[in-house]
Amino acid sequence: MADDSSLRAVGWARSLPLSSRTKAARDWTRAHLATLGWQDNAPETVDAVLLTVSELVTNAHLHTGDAAQLVLTWDHECLHVTVHDPSPRMPRARPATDDGESGRGMLLVDALADSWVARRCPRGKDVTACFRPPADRAGSASKGGGSAEGG
Q: Which stretch of 37-41, 118-122, 147-151 has the lowest confidence by average pLDDT?
């Protein structure tokens, strides 16, 4: 038997200029999650993915004042949600304060995603959150996923 260690994945990418609204990123993501059947099989995971997309895209626009790129990659184990922006400044989960109106985005991502990681790249950084949908009734994984190294 031949070793077929190649990765089979499906992916989608979209550029989000600063003028785009976060809702456009959520709607675009929701449409692609529907093609995976997650709306019916894993609605809680869909909600977590959509909120994560909102947080990551908002962070990219807010902290860089520039466009962001949103990439979804489904490798049949994990949905990788990646947002790229041109800033080399790495995100971090900060303790929330009672009087702060912001600063909770990465805390939410940390709570929602199975794992997340930020990596510097030649022109900025990528922040990737990974989501595995819950097991289906038969005990096998739904159309959902695995995990990347955590952050």
A: 147-151
- Integer distance in angstroms from the first to the last C-alpha of the chain? 37
pLDDT digits (tens, 9 = 90+) for 87-127: 999 987 666 666 666 667 899 999 999 999 999 999 999 99
**Both structure tokens of 77:** 């184990």
- Compute the half-sphere exposure of residue 101: CA atoms within 13 Å on the CB side of its CA: 0
CA distance 69 to 53: 11
**Count of C-beta atoms within a 10 Å radius of residue 60:** 27
Q: What are phi and psi of 69, to 5 degrees?
A: -115, 135
CA distance 140 to 136: 6
Q: Quick: pLDDT tens for 45-64.
A: 999 999 999 999 999 999 89
Identify whether the C-beta of residue 25 lies closer than 8 Å to the C-beta of residue 57: yes
Other CB atoms within a 10 A radius of the CB of residue 93 amount to 16
The side-by-side arrangement of strands in the sheet containing 10-16 is: 10-16, 68-74, 79-85, 124-131, 115-121
